[in-house]
Amino acid sequence: MVLMSVFMGCICSVVHQVLKMNALQKLIEPLLRTVVKEEVELALTKHLAVIKRQCGNSQIHPSASCLQLQFTNRLSLPIFTGTRIEGDNSINIALVDALTGQVVMSGPESLMKVEIVVLEGDFEGGDEENWTYEEFENNIVKEREGKPPLLSGDVFLNLNEGTGAFGELMFMDNSSWTRSRKFRLGARVGSGYYTGMRVREAKTKPFIVKDHRGELYKKHHPPSLDDEVWRLEKIGKDGAFHKRLCSENIKTVKDFLILLNIDSSRLRNILGSGMSAKMWEVVIDHARTCSPDNLMHFYGANPDRKSGVFFNTVGQVMGMLSEEHYIPDDELSKTQKADALMLVKSAFDHWVDVVPCVNTSIAGVSPHFSSNLCSSASPLVENFERNFSSYHKSDGFGLPNSITSPSYFSPTIFTGDSRFDLAQDFLNQDFYGSKYNNTSFETDSEN
After folding, report:
1. Closest CA relative to residue 233, chosen from 222, 249, 244
2. Are strands 67-71 and 199-200 parallel, antiparallel or unpaired?
3. What are phi and psi of 65, to 5 degrees?
């Protein structure tokens, strides 16, 4: 009985130990699985990092890495149907290694054929733009039924050392009928040309393609002085704003800028309440991108011309002459600026008393030169006025005698006329101490 009792005690002890081991296994097993999983993932991460470093050091062939096409410059906008698609320079496509960012300049990949296609404007390709081949293909836009192909011209281009340039390529239909109202251009490897690993396609930013008829009405950036006023943003050709401006004889960008500079409140009233404050800001910002010519004018506050205002072609104050001392516009006080503006307004009403100058003569001008230029006793001004007066009387050229209506916005000022060019040359020569300083200003009669 004693032996039996000892034996049973041993059995119970063994069973108890087994049960404890089983419970411990259930506790430890999940922990072991987690540790093993983390170690495996860490090993894989390190392995991939080694592969990337090898790719960066060009220790493996580019075909074993990720290749992708890229547009290397932006398209010039707006784009019209029937007009060649152009870029900042020529539009180029490049084949690059996505890991290094370098153009693939050697190997069969660097000579592949690329096809240009049209994509939906809302094709994004995910947060990292890592689209699949199928997603790219599904977003290719085909022509409308009964319409010609969307792209006409050189839709294929051949890479040379990893790069290629667009040829003659144009849209044949606008983008207004698509779901996003916009297109993108895409580039993909020509079908069946390259059988290696996938080369990721390229795409441009979305843009609108307008009908070519709209090109006749497109805005100019920047506008020129001689552009019709409807070339400015927010002013449509033959629209309400255009008609209001024309009724006040404001027909060109130059006319618009002159009134903007000398009486902006009147210009605002002409356009009326139909033009919102935001539209007003847009149109004047666009107008101010126009570059005036080099012609300058001086209008004296007094007959002796010891004081007066300098202004450019569009009536912008450039400086003042105060008691024979020249003050640039950025050094004028508020009171002086107000006085200068009043003089400019008076100048357009008394244009016969305005003396043309040359912009380069005024830039950096010294007070001594200003007084010589504008003094009524200066031989230069006497000769200049006498000869301009004789030309005006002899053949009708010159500035109008009286400018009291909006027609003053486009005065004739000998622009492009050889006599006016000679007068400008006379002014410039005087600045450098020319032989003309004390001689009369004369030209051959046939000029």
Report:
1. 222
2. parallel
3. -110, -175
pLDDT at residue 402 greater than cutoff 50: no
Helix (H, G, I), strand (E, B) or coil at 251: coil
Per-residue 3-state assignment (H helix, E strand, C coil) for 46-77: HHHHHHHHHHHCCCCCHHHCCEEEEECCCECC
Our CA angle for 325, 330, 331, nearest 5°, is 45
Beta-carbon-side half-sphere exposure of residue 59 (alpha carbons within 13 Å): 8
Q: Are 423 and 399 in contact (CB under 8 A)?
A: no
Residue 79 phi, psi dihedral angles, 5° rounding:
-115, 135
Contact 185/54 with Cβ under 8 angstroms? no
- Can you tell me which residue has the tokens 């490897």? 189
Question: Which secondary-structure segment (H or E) carries 255?
Answer: helix 253-262
User: How do residues 269-306 score in pLDDT, each as one tens digit?
Assistant: 999 999 999 999 999 999 999 988 888 899 987 777 77
pTM attached to this predicted model? 0.43
pLDDT, tens digit, for every residue of 43-54? 666 555 544 544
Give the 3-state secondary structure of residue 125.
coil
pLDDT of 364 strictly over 50: no
**CA 70 to chain CA centroid, nearest Å:** 22
Closest listed residue to residue 161, CA positions, set 91, 94, 90: 94
Return the DSSP state at 212: G
